[in-house]
User: What shape does this take?
Amino acid sequence: MVKHLSVHTRGQGLYEFTEAVTALVRETSVREGLCTVFIRHTSASLVIQENADPSARRDLDRWLNRLVPEGDALYTHITEGPDDMPAHVKAALTATSLSIPISDGQLTLGAWQGIYLWEHRRQGGAREVVVHVGS
Amino acid sequence: MVKHLSVHTRGQGLYEFTEAVTALVRETSVREGLCTVFIRHTSASLVIQENADPSARRDLDRWLNRLVPEGDALYTHITEGPDDMPAHVKAALTATSLSIPISDGQLTLGAWQGIYLWEHRRQGGAREVVVHVGS
Amino acid sequence: MVKHLSVHTRGQGLYEFTEAVTALVRETSVREGLCTVFIRHTSASLVIQENADPSARRDLDRWLNRLVPEGDALYTHITEGPDDMPAHVKAALTATSLSIPISDGQLTLGAWQGIYLWEHRRQGGAREVVVHVGS
Assistant: This one.
């Protein structure tokens, strides 16, 4: 099964969409298999992170913003705005696809793991994610 | 097939578990397929690296420790210890899942590639990994 | 289906091979499934990036070269040349495997996404990539 999801973002940061993926897995009735999440953008990415304390996600985003700042004199690709080239670098350093095994009909995520879309542009929007569930 | 593995770590660094994955693949009798390894933690990660010279792995771990030091004034998520937030950043920069094609019943790893668990906490422990083998 | 591809590189930088993967997917006649690309090296990696403006790729490579320079006093693994240990670090920070869902017989890549091999050694060569297509 392949399904498209839309994840809405409102600027830089991590947006959890674990529930939407869980619901798709349930729909398929696959008991044992593999769920793959893929993002169709190069200025946003995917990450599995702690879903307990929001301060961990905020620190993550601030840390990456400091490592890959806007206005870096190195950039020549600047026509799409000051946050565009940093967004490409951040996407390259994080994940475009993630695969999670399914056991007993459920994602085998750890107790504190959530699936996040990491928005790297200042102005977010509707981001497209594709989910594959196979056996 | 989905199987759980436990990888024991004794502090920061790379721990090879290629043999355990190879053994699971052999058990399945899959001749052509895909093997996916997933880690159920957000303070440890996965990496495929050179299994020849141990100095490459030591340098890798030291390099990442320098890029993501403890005690960074940026961190607000500090209640779980000084090595917790750096561990989350390191996990976000490396891999949570890895997929390796299977051909002739064997992982198609390159001659010098090994599968490693990268422990980012000072005190290691039993880390949970899930392996999926499909065709 | 598992197939081996060879991607030729002529030094550091990003080399697109989307067409070769697309052709393999077409060959399989899989309408709905998953395509996984895996690189059999630890000094080159994979990345999905913008295939529109080449300046974005050049900036990416220059940015990573600055983050992970040659001649770093931290390195002890130096017998294979000054570009070897930086190449391992760069590979660890980027992807060794990528998975892309297939829908209607086509990779669900976004409009501007291309699949690239990222060569991290100064002297390139023939790099081996393995592609798995499943349903």
The radius of gyration of chain C is 16 Å. Residues 2-134 of chain C form a domain with the Jelly Rolls fold (CATH 2.60.120.460). The CA atoms of residues 76 and 85 of chain C lie 9 Å apart.
